[in-house]
Amino acid sequence: MDVSRMSVAFQALKQQMLRRSPACRNDDRFVADELEAVDQREMAELCALCPLRAACAAYAAAERPAAGFWAGIKYPRPLGRPRKD
Ligand code: SF4
After folding, report:
1. 74 pocket-lining for ligand 1 (C-beta < 6 Å)
2. Which of 6, 19, 23, 55 could form a disulfide with 62 if both were Cys (CB 3.0 to 4.6 A apart)?
């Protein structure tokens, strides 16, 4: 992992979260280990409309989170799958 890229991406996302509250805030599904397909579709729709999506996706791409739902994608990602972003 490139620590400097992670730090920059994290700081950018953090700054945006201080200005705007994303739809995922206080929604426990975004940190759940297991998700139903219907929830994932609904969450992806929320992410698609989120003004923080670009920063969120950049952060997730840099850090490759061990858990959670980031910018429309459930992490961790299965190995060997092509990236969507
Ligand atoms: S794009 Fe990121 S910040 Fe926005 S709702 Fe989805 S997970 Fe939350």
Report:
1. no
2. 6
Which pLDDT tens digit goes with each residue over 9-59? 999 999 999 999 999 999 999 999 999 999 999 999 999 999 999 999 999
The verdict on residue 78 lying in a domain is no
Q: What confidence tier does 83 reach under pLDDT thresholds 50, 70, 90? A: low
From 19, 47, 73, give the residue whose CB has the most ligand 1 atoms within 8 Å, as the site to mutate.
Answer: 47
Q: How many CB atoms lie within 10 A of CB 68?
A: 16
Domain count, the chain: 1
Q: For ligand 1, is residue 12 a contact (CB within 6 Å)?
A: no
Please report where in the chains the tokens 């989170």 appear, as a residue: 65
**Ligand 1 atom nearest 68 alpha carbon:** 7
| DSSP annotation of 31 | G
Give the residue-averaged pLDDT of 54-70: 95
